[in-house]
Design a protein that fits this description.
The complex is a heterodimer of chains A (198) and B (200). Chain A has ten helices and two strands. Chain A is mainly α and 198 residues long. In chain A, a hairpin with a 2-residue loop joins strand 1 and strand 2. In chain A, helix 4 crosses helix 5. Chain B contains two helices and five strands. A five-stranded antiparallel beta sheet of chain B has the order 1-2-3-4-5, sandwiched between helices. The longest helix of chain B has 47 residues. Chain B is extended, with a radius of gyration of 22 Å. Classes of the chains: A mainly alpha (198), B alpha+beta (200). The interface between A and B is medium-sized, with 32 and 27 residues.
């Protein structure tokens, strides 16, 4: 088991967003600005690493018939703990990331990796897989959101980038719902071409 | 049957452990969370109505769905300078909460959006500095978005957000006015209405 390989596969080769097509709901919802995308990505990565580690530890006491409900319980409990701990001890961080925490529960990347990887492999490969997948997710969200924010508002990370004349009347559709689908579709096609599948 | 029972018990054990851990963490953190929330609101209150001491919270229309918690701001001599309250309304993609300070004529002194998750570049601009001044010196009847014939200039492309904020403030201000005008002028501090649980 090559740890480095498990870590890096999430970036491009098995990118959760563009290749595995997991976690589409948070992808579409939180890529309206780079700031939101990074918040979602970091929060999801953290939970993913931790849930992968816990699930790989309990895999021997988990009967296969009921593994999914057990994963759901572990993930939901863990997310709630993170939510409460952040609200209590790191209020500024909670203010920035708090709204993404409940969204993580419904992020199928977490459950997907628990089922496809952490439930079968050991502690360290699972942690590496979680970290790689989480960073791959963050990377994908950052790319999508940078394009949407730039086209939709003329800004990147809340700072003006394009000329004032563009900012005054930007392509608003890019930050609205259709923009998410268009951007995601074009980027998926691009990744497919890069992976020489087309 | 035996198999189902066994699986059921295992699942039950996992859930029981999970609930136990959650109950423990909740017990550890809930006071701290409530304290943080209070502090955030207190800071916002000071920002919209500076240099006063606050009395409260009082509850207007207690028990009704539109009940409102408000504070009375007094200067050093004890004269009422204004009122502060949190107005909240459903925006385009989130609940927008706004800290509002109003004077005794129920005209708005200052507002600050304290909580929103609206579309970046559009409704989220309500948190920018150029938004709150649009509400200053507005009375209840002025609090209608310009598109609907009122005096509040809406954010370009975000009439829904502006309308939600405007409407929530107008409603809250109406409730406040009703409550203040029906209570006797001299409210001794000891007769303070006790906040009815959860803070708004």
């Amino acid at each position: 088991m090559n740890l480095l390989k498990e870590f890096t596969k999430g970036f491009v080769k098995e990118n959760p967003t563009f290749v595995l097509v997991l976690g589409m709901c948070p992808t579409l919802a939180t890529t309206t600005s780079l700031k939101n995308a990074l918040g979602m990505g970091i929060a999801a990565t953290f939970v993913l690493v931790c849930s992968n580690m816990i699930i790989s530890l309990i895999k021997n006491v988990t009967p296969s018939n009921i593994r999914i409900p057990i994963y759901v319980v572990v993930i939901a409990a863990f997310v709630s703990i993170v939510d409460m701990a952040m609200a209590a001890y790191t209020p500024p961080l909670y203010k920035a990331l708090g709204i993404f925490i409940p969204l993580i529960v419904v992020n199928c990347i977490i459950l997907g990796r628990a089922e496809a990887f952490a439930g079968k492999y050991g502690f360290f490969p699972s942690a590496a897989d979680g970290l790689g997948m989480g960073l791959g997710f963050t990377l994908a969200l950052s790319v999508i959101s940078t394009i949407r924010e730039l086209l939709g508002t003329g800004q990147i990370y809340g700072m003006d980038v394009l000329p004032k004349s563009y900012i005054a009347s930007p392509m608003l559709a890019a930050v609205l719902v259709p923009g998410a689908f268009f951007t995601l579709g074009f980027l998926m096609a691009l990744v497919k071409i890069l992976r020489k599948e087309v | 049957m035996k198999e189902i029972l066994k699986l059921g018990i295992i699942l039950f054990l996992f859930c029981a452990i999970g609930s136990g851990v959650l109950a423990f963490v909740n017990k550890m953190t809930k006071d701290k969370i409530a304290e943080n929330k209070k502090k955030t609101e207190a800071d916002a209150r000071k920002e919209v109505l500076p240099n006063v001491t606050f009395d409260g919270p009082f509850t207007a229309d207690a028990g009704k769905p539109d009940s409102l918690q408000y504070f009375i701001g007094k200067d050093q001599k004890g004269a009422i300078v204004g009122y502060t309250f949190i107005a909240s309304g459903r925006g385009y993609s989130s609940t927008v909460r706004t800290m509002v300070a109003a004077d005794q004529a129920f005209q708005i002194l200052k507002i600050k959006v304290i909580d929103q998750n609206e579309t970046p570049g559009l409704g989220a601009n309500s948190s920018k500095d150029n938004f709150p001044p649009r509400f200053e010196k507005m009375g209840i009847s002025d609090l209608v978005v310009d598109k609907d014939g009122g005096k509040i200039k809406s954010i370009t492309g975000s009439t829904i957000t502006t309308r939600a904020i405007t409407k929530s403030i107008r409603n809250a201000l109406t409730v406040l006015k009703g409550a203040v005008e029906t209570t006797p002028k001299q409210v001794a501090p000891t007769e303070k209405l006790v906040a009815s649980g959860g803070s708004l």
